[in-house]
Amino acid sequence: MNFNKIVEKLTKKEETIATMESCTGGAVASAITDIEGASEILKFSAVTYSNEFKIKMGVSSKVIDTYTVYSMETAREMSKNIAAFAGSTYGVGITGKLNAIDKNNPYGEDNVVFISIYDTKRKQYYDEKIHVICESREKNKKQIIKHIIHLLETKI
Question: pTM above the 0.85 mark?
Answer without folding.
Answer: yes
